[in-house]
């Protein structure tokens, strides 16, 4: 503080994982977004990227453009960001606040990971199980049905799966976080690993609110193509099933096997209860266009 | 590339210096700013912050908001940024491009510096000489007299003093880059070090264009209170004069002694040719208000 730069001392012998993200008002959040939740989410999406690499978050920089000095907004935003940062011992090491007509938030997060143990998208192998943490579809449901509190919370206060990412370093072959939707994000693993996958729709853990809605098409769109859940999708060898099941109990976080990786073209088949391929809209981009 | 984060391997045993900066169209640059120069300057201001700490630049992340995909603009911007990055072996390790109504550029730069050798603002001691690199006032002159090519170049294509910063690690006690004007930036050193300073106006190296203009008031405002020169101001013990003079020759960069640090209140006196204090407007913020 007070110098041109912050000085950090990384742990000797670790690699650094770095991710950066920009959120713009009107595109990534609404002008009336609750600032405390926004501060949480702006950091959460970056911590989620680190988790998907198996990295332990350490430091973060924040650049903000604001139309005017709005002290209550800034205090609430900072409180949300710092509360999440404190939970994971993440230090804010640099900041720049400037004036700009459109509220804009840019965060760079830096984490540490032992050399060779980072989880990459290219590591999936035929025979791997496909796993997902938590439940899917809630954040997308929160967009269209904001009155459902459980879904709105998933949208506005996502939990980055930091501990899970760290523990998967020696258990998973490949991982990604669900930011654009299960179908689209899993497709990134398949393309980078040059493998195919089949997933059973019935086995995908879904936000509990869907059970009461009785709208299977909405459910399917949210679960397969909805973004912003920030759960981890990962592949792991069958031999690690017992360890992953005990890890789920230890973390108090559901880890569910939803399918498997196979050789062949990098395509995802989502199968219905009869084992037939289910039509779906792909990742978030496609959903947004309909 | 292709994963959630970039992986870096820092050199063992070095500290990291991190700085972040956000530039907003209409505030930090004009809508018709030449994009190649803008790409250069956006990176240069961050490399200058690293240089002021004595850090060697290594990695940079870039987040961009753009109103529309404008391929020629983006290509020229990137060309300017990458050309400067290549000169200093800086790798772009993360990026996020998103849509936003106002062009916004956020850069985080990471450098390395041996532990204990970072140049901080708090290190100035009574008896130190005050030095400045290059010439001052050119960038501010370029703002008001854009037709003077030499001055416009100083404004739009500043040179971060990377090698100088590295070489000052063992020679200087304190350093800062001139981003807000000599008077304001040197005042930061004085406040943090709790020392005073006197500077002789006649000894300050000035952009050569002032000699032809014959406007001493404009010159004084630009030289003392103009920002954006990105030269380094630093303090060093008298015993290092010979080394600093030979460093200037080696780097082909003027290093000029302009005054000295003394004990007492953290105030800056700028003295005229008769040794009398010269009234001045302080740093850039004050200048902007007049």
Name a few traits of the molecule.
homodimer, 290 residues, alpha+beta, 6-stranded mixed beta sheet, 34% helix, disordered C terminus
Structure description:
2 copies of one chain form a homodimer. With 290 residues, chain A is α+β, with helices and mostly antiparallel strands. Chain A has 10 helices and 11 strands. Chain A has helices spanning 35-52, 71-87, 138-144, 149-156, 162-167, 182-193, 209-213, 216-225, 241-251, 284-289, and strands spanning 6-8, 15-24, 56-66, 91-99, 104-113, 129-133, 174-177, 196-200, 232-236, 255-262, 268-271. A 6-stranded mixed beta sheet of chain A has the order 7-9-6-10-8-11, with helices on both faces. A 4-stranded mixed beta sheet of chain A has the order 2-5-3-4. In chain A, helix 1 runs parallel beside helix 2 and helix 3 (138-144) crosses helix 4. Chain A is globular. The relative contact order of chain A is 0.17. Strand 2 of chain A pairs antiparallel with strand 1 (6-8) of chain B.
Low-confidence region ranges of chain A: 284-290
Q: What would the average pLDDT of chain A be, to the nearest integer?
A: 93
The order of strands across the largest sheet of chain A is 7-9-6-10-8-11
Protein chains sharing the most extensive interface: A-B, 59 and 59 residues
Question: What gyration radius of chain A follows from the Cα positions, in whole Å?
Answer: 19 Å
Structural class of chain A: alpha+beta
The protein's oligomeric status is homodimer
Number of helices of chain A: 10
Which descriptor suits the 3D outline of chain A?
globular
Major β-sheet of chain A, in short?
A: 6 strands, mixed
Distance separating the two termini of chain A: 48 Å
Strand content of chain A: 25-35%
Report helical residue fraction of chain A. Answer: 25-40%
């Amino acid at each position: 503080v007070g110098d041109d730069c912050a000085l950090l001392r990384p742990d000797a012998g670790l690699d650094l994982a770095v991710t950066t993200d920009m959120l713009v008002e009107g595109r990534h959040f609404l002008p009336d977004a609750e600032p405390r939740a926004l501060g949480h989410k702006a950091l959460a999406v970056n911590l989620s990227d680190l988790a998907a690499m198996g990295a332990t978050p350490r430091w973060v920089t924040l650049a903000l453009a604001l139309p005017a000095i709005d002290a209550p907004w800034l205090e609430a935003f900072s409180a949300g960001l710092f509360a999440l940062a404190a939970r994971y011992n993440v230090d804010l090491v640099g900041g720049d606040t400037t004036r700009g007509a459109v509220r804009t938030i840019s965060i760079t997060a830096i984490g540490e990971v032992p050399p060779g143990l980072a989880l990459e998208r290219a590591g999936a192998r035929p025979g791997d199980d496909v796993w997902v943490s938590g439940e899917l579809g809630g954040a997308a449901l929160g967009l269209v049905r904001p009155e459902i509190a459980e879904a709105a919370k998933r949208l506005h206060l996502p939990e980055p799966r930091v501990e899970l990412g760290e523990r998967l370093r020696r258990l998973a072959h490949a991982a990604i976080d669900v930011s654009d939707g299960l179908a689209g994000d899993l497709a990134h693993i398949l393309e980078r690993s040059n493998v195919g996958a089949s997933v059973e729709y019935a086995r995908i853990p879904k936000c509990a609110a869907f059970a009461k809605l009785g709208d299977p098409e909405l459910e399917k769109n949210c679960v397969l193509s909805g973004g912003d859940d920030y759960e981890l999708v990962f592949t792991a060898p069958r031999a690690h099933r017992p360890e992953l099941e005990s890890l789920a109990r230890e973390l108090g976080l559901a880890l569910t096997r939803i399918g498997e990786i196979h050789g062949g073209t990098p395509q995802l088949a989502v199968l219905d209860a009869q084992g037939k391929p289910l039509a779906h809209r792909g990742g978030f981009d496609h959903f947004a266009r309909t």
